[in-house]
Structure formats: C-alpha cells, structure tokens
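User: Hello, can you help with two protein structures?

Assistant: Certainly.
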Amino acid sequence: MKYTLYIGTNRYSLSTEDDILKLSPSNFECQHKILTGNKDILRSVQVAYRKLFKKSIHKYNKNNPKKEIKSYYVKINESKKQALATAMLIKINEKNYKNLDKDKIIELFLNQVKVIKKILKNFYVVSVILYFEKSLTLRVVGVPYVKDKENELEVRVSKSNCFTREKVEELRLNLQIQANRDFLKFFVNKTKNMIENKKKIDIR
C-alpha cells in the first residue's frame, strides 16, 4: 500500500469559486461516494461561512458601522489575498483494491476524516468524497479559521494559523499510521486468516 497526502497546493489551493467548482464530482469520470456534504461543494462552503462567521461579523459591524461587512464570504472571495477554502487529497495506491470489501474501504477513509478533525480543531470540514480511480482518492474540502478575541474580527479565515508546519507534520504522521493500521486490520490480517483456514480445511 502506497500512501500520499497533499494539502492546499497548486490546484488544491481554492482561491476562487472557480477553483472550488473544479472539484465538483461531475468533473471526475469515475465512481464516487459522498461521505460528507453533497454534490454542490460551493454551496456547502457558502453555508459554512454563515455558520462559522455570522456572530463575529455581527459583532464587528455593530462596533464598526462605517466599515460594515455585508458578506464575509464575498469579502474573502473578492480580496484575492486568502483562499476561500482549503482542500486535502489523500491517495492510497493498492493495485487490487477492487477485490477488497467496499464497506471496509469506506470505513478506512472515514477514519482518516476522524484524524483530520481531531488534529485540526480549526478546520471546518465541508465536503468529503471518495473516488474509485486507478488509486483510491479522497478529496476533502474545508474552511480553516482562527479564533482571536484580541482581533476586531474574533473569528476569521486563516489557513496559516490552522496549517502550521508542526500541525501538518503531526497530521501527516497520524493519518499514515491510521491508514496502515486499518489496512492491516481490514485486509491483510483477514486475508491471512482466510488462507490459514483454507489450509486447515485442505488438511482435513
């Protein structure tokens, strides 16, 4: 099993709405399974903005009526200084994955999402879709943010605060450990047991 993780670089740096739209499931010609969210990733990001920043924006506008922010989503989208969202790509390259239990494959990737949520406390996961390509591919889209009461805008988008070098290293290590553990548990050990049981039957 070969494991690969990419975080928010190149085409996975979701700076604009067009970048997010490119990750729509309809753009990938392969079977997929939506684990979190729905097909409309852009809409889901917009909803996430309202959930995450509504109270903070309301308080900011109350204290700064001359600098009112009508829509934080629009403000970030138009600023071009920060990405609207961040994507992660997890690939597991296993030649014979089509022979593996699909439910167990899904469980393995759901465990990957649990690790992401555990380590990245300030990463609001919006969309998780598993693609059955040449390799198993998980695309995760979320909104990174920071809470800072010292700032006028107490909750705001912040990729740099969420994805520090230390956090990325911790995330990469823990995701790979979890994937290896699950792969061993779900597939390798199960295969060994099947072979051993077959040998016992043949001997009898």
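That covers the first. Now for the second protein you mentioned:
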Amino acid sequence: MANADTVTTLDEVHAGIIAAINAQFPTLATVEAYRLDRKTLSLPACLIELTEMDVEPDPGTEQLAVMARFEAHFVIGFRQGALNPKLEVRKLAAAFAVFARLQRWGCPIGPAEVIGCYPDDFDPELDQYECWRVEWRQVIHLGESIWTDIGPTPEPVYSWAPNIGIGNEHYYRELAELLPPGTELPPEEP
C-alpha cells in the first residue's frame, strides 16, 4: 500500500526549495526567501516568495489542501563582462523553469507546475539590475493527517448487499477468491 504521509510545513518546503536551488545552481551567490535588504545583495541571486495559497478540495486527511503559488526572482547586475545581462537573466530563468518542473523539493507535496517566466521590476530604485521571475504552483497539505502507517494494513475483502456492514463480517471473503485458480493479485505499490 502506498504511504499516505502528506505532512509537511511551510518551513520544510521553503528549506527544500532553497537547498535544491543551491545544489542545482552553485554559481548563485544568494539564494534566500523573503530578503528584506535588497541593496546589499550578492549577485547573481535568487529570491523565493510564496505569494498565494488557494484552498483546494478536501484531501480526506483532515488537512487543508492549498494550491501554493511561488515566485523565484532571478537578479543579476548589468556588469557581466562580455556577457549580455539581458540575455543571461533570461537564460537563468529558463534553466530554472526546466529544473522546477515536477519538483517536490524533497517534501511530500504535489509536483511543481511551472506557470511562466516574466520580466520583473525587482526594485525601481535599483536600476543597475536585470531581473526575471519564474512562477510555479503546487499542492501542499497543511496540518496533521489522520492517516498513519501504524498498525496492520487492511486486506481487501468483498461481499454483496444486503450481507454487508457491521454484523455481516462472516459473509466477507478475500478478494483473491474472485480470481481464476492460479491467478495472483498484483503486488502492492511501496
């Protein structure tokens, strides 16, 4: 039976995103979430923000499912030597979009769905920067789940109405009895 553990925190998701970006893009001098001081920023940089959380359908775990929308702001300076900063920031945003697609950041969350890459003003007072942002979204279950891996995994059984429910347990049979002799059920997923 598949593990139903979907418990994580926003801290764990942010830490997973930052760790994955640092590992994939080691040339970035700064990878942070919610940086307040942008005037002393070491470049090139990637700044992460969670910008929205829309409620999703109930996942059946007593958790709150949200579609979390994230932004990664990629910032480089105008001084790139012989490189064109306008092209370099676009290439960096595109490379991240490719990397982010379907990422779960080491957390039990839904796969990332990249929405797009866009020019970004970053900070109007800091006109020496080129900045693009990449937006993505993914489902996160917030809070504790009622489902745990404690105890035995129930075996599938069957019966027919009206011989179902409490008091009719003796009518239930193993699902394997429905299969032709010699046929085995497929193995359960880990």
